Amino acid sequence: MKKTNQKNGSGISIGITYAVGFGIYGILFPFFPIVLKSQGLDDSQTSLALSGAGLAAIVGPIIFAHVADRKLAFRRLLPLLLAVATIFLELMRFSHTVGAAFCTVFLLYFFLIPGLSLLDSFCMDFVLRSADVGRPRRFQNYRIWGSIGFMVPAVVLALWFREHSAPADLLVTMTMCFTVATALSALMLPPNTPSTKVAKLPSVEAFRAATQSPLREFFIANFFAGIGLAIYYISYPMFLHQLGCSVVEIGLIINLGVVYEILVMPFAERLIHVVGIRRMILIGFVTMPVRMALSAAWPTIPMAIGVQLLHAPLVLGLFIAVPIFLQEQARPTFRHSLQGLNATMIFGLTRFIGPAIGSLVMASASTGALDGLIRGLMLAGLCGAIAAAVFYSVCKSRPVCAE
């Protein structure tokens, strides 16, 4: 009985780590510009400083994935990463120039972002190990707490700031509290052992696997989807603003999609079982052009709210099914590195390329800001359509149920 309780506790600690870990981003993603502007930076300087996060996402995940695969157990690595990240959060209070802010943002996210892909990989490994000993677990049952953890602080703060000011010091302090809580919960995670006896570099093994089918087609498709999502993430809030929504209303509409995501998540296993893991990913790709086409064809607030219903299948396809798919394709010696390679591409490279292309397309519109944003959404949809077309060949040529 004691052993069983210990295993249950370990599983609970994964859910807690997801909840408080994603809570960090529930504060940073919508409110971090407020922190930077409080240091005296204008809009353009704030955008430049935030680009440091994209640069960090290119190099951070693959480096620390190697450490997790070979050197240090994840339950020890994650608290170390978060401890260093907390230092740079505190330094944000003293970053009064664009150069200092860029460096601080880069270093903050360099130690912060790898935790996302590593946590997915660790959770999938835990699910597989539990199945081997006759205690089946479900990845989405842990991942759902990440969605809840992201939404709660974002919505609470958005409602609070509707009636009160948004002090930057409070935002930094709250983020640090979530960071410390995540580090403490990580110490309670179940143990795992890196593959220290394997001579090959895990990043090299992951890259070689990525050049072979079906991972080759997947990474090409996900690259285009990542570019589309990067364009969408910068276009959609401005699109809502042009339709007349306030900053608080924009935050609530965006989090409405997260609510749908949470409601659908309990049925993820059944959906994946019915359609297959690869077709679930394909559905995620397909939702992108559908979502963008509806928004561009009918640029109204009701439609902008309605298309948030498609956020749930997109998340199930690209953020639930994808980690499972990658884990099935990877060997134990490079599981973290394959997830890190995907994070480097999606949270790094595409976050640079997408906004650059999207800005050029939106700036080319001569009939007004709304028309430019509609063009941006259409471009994002086109990228999603290309991703779906590329990945369709994988679903068509290989049996889906074999996974």
| Overall geometry | globular
Euclidean distance between termini CA atoms: 34 Å
Radius of gyration: 21 Å
Q: CATH topology of the largest domain, which one?
A: Growth Hormone, Chain: A
Strand share of the residues?
Answer: under 5%
DSSP helix count?
16
Query: What is the helix fraction of residues, given as a range?
Result: over 70%
Count of distinct structural domains = 2
CATH structural architecture of the largest domain? Up-down Bundle
Low-confidence stretches: 1-9, 399-403
Per DSSP E runs of 2 or more residues, the count of β-strands stands at: 0
CATH superfamily of the largest domain: MFS general substrate transporter like domains
Helix and strand succession? HHHHHHHHHHHHHHHH
Mean pLDDT: 83
Sheet/helix structural class: mainly alpha
In this structure, how is the largest beta sheet organized? Answer: none
Highlighted features:
single chain, 403 residues, mainly alpha, Growth Hormone, Chain: A, 0% strand, disordered N terminus
